[in-house]
Amino acid sequence: MKQITEQQKRKDDTSNQLIRKQDIILIGAVLFLGLIVFIVMQITKTEGSKVKIFIDNVEYKTLDLNIDMTEKVELDNGEWNLFEIKDGKVDMLDASCPDKICVNHKDIHYNTEDITCLPNKVVLKITGGEENEVDAVAN
Amino acid sequence: MKSKKVATYGLLVALAFILSYIESLIQIPFAVPGIKLGLANLVVITALYSMGAKEAFVLSLIRILLVGFTFGNPSTMMFSLGGGLLSWALMSIFKWSKLFSIVGVSIIGGVSHNIGQILVAIFVVDNINLFYYLPFLLVSGVVTGTLIGILGAMIVKRIRNILR
């Protein structure tokens, strides 16, 4: 009886070999998928002309990327985000959020690129010019 | 037997809690929302292999609620829930399929944890562009998943007999 469990254990150990062929295939498949998505993103990106600011999913305002400026968005709950428009690019300078992911994010200028501050629910999003004017007329 | 299980749960919850805290102290240089080391996943995967899928689920849920109430806020807790549940579900399925080793299971756990968080974020912030982080999340999930998987294999090998 003891011998059987011993054998069983040994069998378990070999079938639990640290990295199997399937694992390598899995790694390859995930990395390949990442590469494909990345390439598609690179091909489809275009330069934007405006930045839209959303607070808690509601559009707050739209700013022109050609006008350099610095603005602080202050939320009702005391949280804030400070961002800058310079040389046609938008960058988050500082924020009250705990993780500072939005602050560490690189500056953005391509269409549909965005900086999202999840804790504060503040989103800076690049858009194209024409689309905005249509929106403005519709509003 | 039952008290042993209670003690094991307590031990693993405490460990997951501490690992989550340590993780919150580590700043990752290339910051992309959703990227995490997934240290706490080490405990979930240990539970998955040494106790079972149900136990891993309970542990994962308790950890997320505890950490969410202690260090986070309702929105970060929702992201963690999305990541944690998707990651637990896929890891359980991958383990059950018996095709992959603990490293493969950990990789799918890491990747799906990142994807789950971004899915909740897309829903909460209503910003489909978060999808653009996907390539980074996939790659980071593979890297951290592999490391956590190798560590997990070492731990499981040593404590499996104690926990059962």
Short précis:
Chain A has 139 residues and is of the alpha+beta class. Chain A has 4 helices and 7 strands, in the order ααβββββαββα. Chain A folds into 2 domains: 43 residues; 89 residues, N-utilization substance G protein NusG, insert domain (mini-chromosome maintenance (MCM) complex, domain 2), CATH 2.60.320.10.
Describe this structure in words.
The complex is a heterodimer of chains A (139) and B (164). Helix content of chain A is 37%, strand content 31%. Chain A is of the alpha+beta class. Chain A has 2 domains: 2-44; 50-138, Sandwich (mini-chromosome maintenance (MCM) complex, domain 2). Residues 10-14 and 130-139 of chain A have low confidence and may be disordered. Chain B has a single domain, classed as Arp2/3 complex 21 kDa subunit ARPC3. Chain B is mainly alpha-helical. Chain B has helices at 2-25, 41-50, 53-70, 74-97, 102-125, 134-163. Chain B is globular. Chains A and B meet through helix 2 of A and helix 4, helix 5 and helix 6 of B.
Biggest sheet of chain A, open or closed, and with what strands and sense?
Answer: 4 strands, antiparallel
Quaternary form: heterodimer
- CATH fold naming of the largest domain in chain A: mini-chromosome maintenance (MCM) complex, domain 2
Strand element count of chain B: 0
Which sequence of strands runs across the widest sheet of chain A? 2-1-7-6
Percent of residues in helices of chain A:
25-40%
β content of chain B, as a range? under 5%
- Would you tell me the structural class of the helices and strands of chain B? mainly alpha
> At CATH's second level, what is the architecture of the largest domain in chain A?
Sandwich
Q: Whole-number radius of gyration of chain A?
A: 24 Å
Considering residues with a beta carbon less than 8 A from a beta carbon on another chain, report the largest interface and each chain's count: A-B, 33 and 34 residues
Beta strands of chain A, count: 7
Organism (chain A): Mobilitalea sibirica
Protein name (chain A): NusG domain II-containing protein
Keywords (chain A): Membrane, Transmembrane, Transmembrane helix
Pfam family, one (chain A): NusG_II
